[in-house]
């Protein structure tokens, strides 16, 4: 297998990380750490969590489809025609 720059860089990085780990582990020294006694404090607080799930339905104030069951017709003739065509197509889909 031919060595490329990428393989050499990866190998060099792995060796450097290994050396860094060895230095970090060796830096801890041979002395045991001084133990600190825990000071008794107030007892831990008990926390209770309750999840409340409910459905909120909002009706927009300008929504005529909720009130009359059909879409509100626009004032412009083209928009009115488009809305009628869409409503008819929707009714055909419903059966």
Briefly, what is this?
This protein is mostly helical and 95 residues long. Helices cover 47% and strands 0% of the residues.
Describe, in plain words, how this protein is organized in 3D:
This protein is an all-alpha fold. It has a domain at 68-95. The chain is 47% helix and 0% strand. It has three helices and no strands. The chain has helices at 5-26, 64-68, 77-94.
Summarize the topology.
Blueprint: H1 5-26, H2 64-68, H3 77-94
Q: Give the count of helical stretches.
A: 3
Instruction: Name the structural class.
Output: mainly alpha
Radius of gyration over all CA atoms, rounded: 37 Å
Largest sheet: none
Low-pLDDT ranges: none
* Amount of beta strand: under 5%
- The number of E-state strands comes to 0
Shape: flat
The whole-number mean of residue pLDDT values reads: 79
Order of helices and strands: HHH
Q: What level of helicity do the residues show?
A: 40-55%
Termini gap = 70 Å
Features:
mainly alpha; 3 helices
